[in-house]
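Amino Acid Chain and Its Fold in Token Form
===========================================
What this section holds: a protein sequence and its matching fold, both as plain text.
Structure line: whole-number tokens from a learned vocabulary of local backbone shapes, matched to residues.
Purpose: to set a sequence beside its fold so the mapping can be learned.
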Amino acid sequence: MSQLGQVGRDPEVITEARRRVDLYLAAQPGAAHDATIPPERVGILLMLGALAGDEALHQRYVQQLQTPSTGSNTAAYMTALAWFEAPALAERTRELATDGRGGIPSRWRLLVALLDNPRTRLDTWAWMQSHWPQIEAQTPPAGRIELLEGTAGLCDPMRRWEVSSFFSPSIRPLEGGLKAYSWALSEIDACIDRQSHLRTAGDWLRAHYSDKALKKRSKRNRPARGAS
């Protein structure tokens, strides 16, 4: 179900997830609330519900994060907020990461989740760079290292250079910072290398198995007229 919704964007799966999320959020706190969706499915359904989510649902997720009784589902709501992909809602999620109001714990993890979503990754990275003084002032060293590690999905040489130069002065001196810095850059390098191999393979397949290439090969192998 997760793959059909998150990757395949199956409309029926997303619509059903939204219906079940609405039921879950409408239930009373306590046993009835938890019984609506099995605990192990809450995170997946909240995320899929966000794909069809609007401003009202985004606000309801935020309210759940601000509620102490949310407890073990805090991480699930944080991850799900990153899957509201409408530009205005993604921007609102980013702003929550530096908004000191509302009692949201470990709010930098909203940015980590946005970096994990390919559709919000680049905008979030650009936003982080322009808001870093504010982020750095509000985020403990361990959180800043998590943000660095979150950039591992930035998969092109220009972003690799940005990550390297941006984090080198402030993160490397932290305990565990150099290790995280080296790991993130190695992950970016590996991703760039994979993409390069995929492009090479794609070029080869197009050269040998495109309609044009197959027609050319068929014509070349066709016996000449009059040949016995």
In short: The radius of gyration is 23 Å. Residues 18 and 49 are 4 Å apart (CA to CA). The chain has two domains: 1-94, 116-215.
